[in-house]
Amino acid sequence: MSRARTARRIAAGAAYGGGGLGLVGVAAVGLVLAEVQFAKRTVGTGLPDPPRADGLYGSEFGGPELSPGPLRLGMLGDSTAAGLGVRRARQTPGALLASGLAAVAERPVELRNVALSGAMSDDLDRQVGLLLDGDAPPPDVCVIMIGANDVTRRMPPTQSVRLLTSAVRRLRLAGSEVVVGTCPDLGTIEPVYQPLRWMARRVSRQLAAAQTIGVLALGARTISMGDLLGPEFAANPREMFGPDSYHPSAEGYATAAMAVLPTMCAALGLWPESDRLDVSRDEDMLPVAKAASAAAGEAGTEVTGARGPWALLKHRRRRRVAGEDLAPRPATTPKAPTTPVAEPR
Asked: Using CA atoms, how far apart are residues 21 and 9, in angstroms rounded to an integer?
């Protein structure tokens, strides 16, 4: 069965409450379980909690009291969204995206990161509540990175997609633009060997494609995390992975931010490029399922809904995230975190 067809079945099961497909088949169960246990002993070795990066970025463009005020960015998801594995707040993906967005918009950006290390898609409802409940206005844009733990803990993919689309629906109804970083390709993790590597790659890409199909109907955009947030991970694993050989390093998170930033800015109408296709970059308009399947196999690929059952497959040019002049500064609003944010370099 093709990836597009499988993803379409998973997404349909999520929409209509079907059981869908399991993440791991019955073949070679004993060997797979042995590989899983070995991988668990090898990766994820007790990293400290990720640094808090909430606060105001790009304050040189104006304070929160000036009209129209800062843009509001919400980060949701798992350890990748939280920035597990780095030591400084400015190295987390949320801080990098906030700095980059401030540079493009020439406007301050207020970041609130509610992502949780180890989270599965069933935690998204709680995270959305943290962003939407209360008197504060909803985020202008939210970035969700989720799916890896759903695969490793064998959550049924239909359930995973259903939970994600529910969270995206709430955010969209609140007026937020949403960018989903789809499930990364877990077949690239170095300590994982065959046949688990092949199975992990297959099911993670299937889930990524199904996530895209599910959220495009709600007006969200997706960006493929592919082989763990970019082809550079496969080429330079020692630099791109952190000390546990599972989570990205500071360089890896910077690579991820450069992939997500153009799509996030395009969602807000800030990117200089339109949604027109650029054939010189192999961009295309495809049926949604085929676009989702193609994106799942190529990191950094954006999928945006077009019209009817069609979607745009985009390869936006990556731009470097903001540099030292946009180092984050503590927020000055009443809701500012008490935990210090990154210090200027």
From this structure: 8
Q: Which range, of 159-168, 188-197, 218-227, 272-281, averages the lowest pLDDT?
A: 188-197
Cβ-based neighbour number of residue 69 at 10 Å: 15
Using CA atoms, how far apart are residues 255 and 266, in angstroms rounded to an integer? 18
Contact present, 206 and 297 (Cβ < 8 Å): no
Cα gap 258→142, rounded to integer Å: 16
Q: What is the pTM of this model?
A: 0.80
**CB-neighbour burial class of residue 331 (10 A; exposed 0-12, middle 13-18, buried 19+):** buried
Distance separating the N- and C-terminal Cα atoms of the chain? 51
Element (H, E) at 287: strand 284-287
- 147-187 pLDDT, tens digit each: 988 887 888 889 999 999 999 999 999 999 999 999 987 76
What is the SS3 assignment for 23? coil
Point out the least confidently predicted range of 30-39, 149-158, 273-282. Answer: 30-39
C-alpha distances out from residue 192 to 189, 235, 253, Å = 6, 17, 21
Distance CA 302, CA 222 (A): 6
Other residues' Cβ atoms within 10 Å of the Cβ of residue 64: 16
> Where does residue 228 fall: left (phi above 0), alpha (psi -120 to 50 degrees), or beta otherwise?
left
CA nearest 152: which of 250, 247, 274, 294?
Answer: 247
Token pair recorded at residue 89: 């707040």
Of the candidates 143, 130, 171, 27, the residue with the CA atom closest to the CA atom of residue 78: 143
Residue 17 burial (10 A CB sphere; 0-12, 13-18, 19+):
exposed
Q: What is the pLDDT of residues 256-277, one digit of tens each?
A: 888 899 999 999 999 876 677 8
- Report the catalytic residues: 79, 244, 247
* Tokens coding 265: 């800015």
